[in-house]
């Protein structure tokens, strides 16, 4: 079994204006960007230092009015077998396993409550160890599930995730932190009833300081929809929308 099994290993933004999105995230998060050199499409690679973090591409023509958004890729040693297991455990396979030439194999799937993510396995054995708290890295993964218990049973059985702290959020319910390969990776909870969105995964990009990042979001044409807010452990977060309408989050060690 790969040491990456069950880890979030890649992130991808599909949007309506790739040039504008590149400018925005380079400014807000501090990523560098370069073209991937793919022969049949424009695909931009975002990096933090020497480490590639995410990809950027135009919305596919067959997206059927789907809004711009981020999606995460979870490593699976056997994408085909895992996709079958997703379906067997009540999830849905939105795109059957397929090859990315020279890169790996992937599938687009959804959990039983409707949150969408991708499965991925690489043709390379190289790992990408990094300081998850460093600027530009993805510091947290957050699931707003249709039902926490259903989602937890699904992901823990599929990927071997383990429970960490369970935070009592009062009327909002339990926020369950989870560990992947022994390290805290994110949290999940039942989506608040007044949140006007289907179940979804959200991704928190690390920045140095949250107030300065808010200024960059606003200057770039984005919009903060929640925060700044201090969370247990002393970090500061915001939830925001980029100029094309894709939701994202930022986390920083200081205000």
From TrEMBL:
Pfam families with a match to the protein in the record:
Glyoxalase
What InterPro entries does the annotation carry? Answer: Anthracycline_SecMetBiosynth, Glyas_Bleomycin-R_OHBP_Dase, Glyas_Fos-R_dOase_dom, VOC_core
| TM region(s), chain numbering | none
Instruction: Name the domain of life.
Output: Bacteria
| Residues annotated as domain VOC | 7-122, 137-253
Do you know which Gene3D superfamilies this protein is assigned to? 2,3-Dihydroxybiphenyl 1,2-Dioxygenase, domain 1
Q: Which residues form a coiled coil?
A: none
Q: What is this protein called?
A: VOC family protein
Q: What is the lineage of its organism?
A: Bacteria, Pseudomonadati, Pseudomonadota, Alphaproteobacteria, Hyphomicrobiales
